[in-house]
Structures are given as structure tokens and as C-alpha cells.
Amino acid sequence: MSPLIVLVGPMGVGKSTVGQLLAERLGVGYRDTDDDIVAGEGRTIADIFVDDGESAFRAIEKRAVRTALTEHDGILALGGGAILDADTRALLAGERVVYLSMDVEEAVKRTGLNAARPLLAVNPRRQWRELMEARRHLYEEAATAVVPTDGRTPEEVTEAALDALELKEA
Ligand SMILES: Nc1ncnc2c1ncn2[C@@H]1O[C@H](COP(=O)(O)OP(=O)(O)OP(=O)(O)O)[C@@H](O)[C@H]1O
Ligand SMILES: O=C(O)C1=C[C@@H](O)[C@@H](O)[C@H](O)C1
Ligand SMILES: [Mg+2]
Fold first, then answer.
1. Which ligand sits nearest to residue 8's alpha carbon?
2. Is the domain 5-165 a CATH 3.40.50.300 member?
């Protein structure tokens, strides 16, 4: 089993929002590896970062992504940093991957100063830019289609993704 679409992109770009719309439009299920991690660990992602550190979180995330890629046949959203793992990127090579992109101002609007996003807790604008410098090329390399989300409603992003993939609705 393999997902119909894998969504990648930075925190707050709309993976959950658009992922659920895509799932409705295509008549399939929606799954999110961040949610799988929270359910499996019984604690929030922020708590995992604080208690065990980022590298422990990445190890948990890598397992969660591998499991979801083999178990789920609908829309799968990956955590924003999952793309950093080389083994995960190798697994994505065989998948239909949509990279949802946005610019920094849109990112600040959508994520704000939300403490639930530990990587953006201090100086979100600068941290977002730094994260994207390290990740943009990884998202782009993994992507079957890049769908910009700036100035688009979630419905418009959903439509653009369906068009880009030439997927027909259920
Ligand atoms: N196209 C859009 N235009 C404007 N706001 C949007 C759009 N897509 C999502 N949002 C809003 O941006 C915020 C983040 O969206 P969402 O939670 O779907 O992103 P995400 O990529 O799943 O983030 P996370 O990193 O938390 O998983 C939400 O408040 C959502 O309503
Ligand atoms: O961009 C990241 O590194 C992260 C994104 C979120 O989806 C979560 O997986 C976590 O907050 C880390
Ligand atoms: Mg989400």
C-alpha cells in the first residue's frame, strides 16, 4: 500500500487544511505523521522536543513516516522537517509528492508565535528563513509538483494540486 498523495512543506503552509480537502475531493482518508507521533507517544510534539531533544524526535518521526507510507492509501501529510532524513527522502522517490510552498510573510501570518511550533518559538521570521534555506531544495527535489499557496484560499490550493497532478475526483 502507498499513499495517493504525500504532502510536504513547512510548518503552517496548509498541509492539514489542504490535505483534508484533497481527501474529501478524492474520496480517500487523511493521515498526518505529526498526529501519529502524538498519538503513539501520548505527548505533544513540543513536549517531545523539550523532554528528549530534536534528534530523538527525528528518530521517532522517521519510523512514523515509514509506517504511514506503507499503511496508508489516502492523503498523507508529513511533518515539516521529515524531509531532512535521507532514508525518508529515498522512500519518497517512489511517491506522488506535492510540495506546498509559501513566502516568509505568509508563513508568519499563518504560524504567528505559536508555542506549539517549537522551532519557531523565538524570532519566527529569521528562524523560518533559516529553516527554508536548509530545506527548500530538499522539498523541491522530492516534489512531483510544487504548488504555491501565497494569496490562494485552501480551496484554490486544493484545485491547483489536483490540476498539477492531473488527478480526477471520486
Ligand atoms: N491557503 C491558505 N490561506 C490562508 N490561510 C491558510 C491557508 N491554508 C491554511 N491556512 C491557515 O494557516 C494555518 C496553518 O494551516 P495548517 O494547520 O493546515 O498547516 P500545516 O502545514 O498543517 O501546519 P503544521 O505545521 O501545524 O502541520 C491555519 O490557521 C489555517 O487555517
Ligand atoms: O519543521 C519542523 O521541523 C517541524 C514541523 C512540524 O510539522 C512538527 O513535525 C515539528 O514541530 C517539527
Ligand atoms: Mg498540520
1. 1
2. yes
pLDDT of residue 120: 65
Which among 16, 36, 5 is positioned nearest to 110, based on CA atoms?
16
> Taking the domains of the chain in order of start, what are their residue ranges?
5-165
Question: Is 45 close to ligand 2, i.e. is its CB under 6 Å away?
Answer: yes
* Residue 58 assigned as binding residue: yes
Distance from Cα 36 to the centre of ligand 1, integer Å: 18
Q: Is 117 annotated as a binding residue?
A: yes
What are 61-86's pLDDT values in tens digits?
Answer: 999 999 999 999 999 999 999 999 99
Write the CA distances from 140 to 13, 25, 41, 110, integer angstroms.
15, 25, 30, 21
The confidence band for 143, taking pLDDT boundaries of 50, 70 and 90, is very high
Q: What is the pTM of this model?
A: 0.94
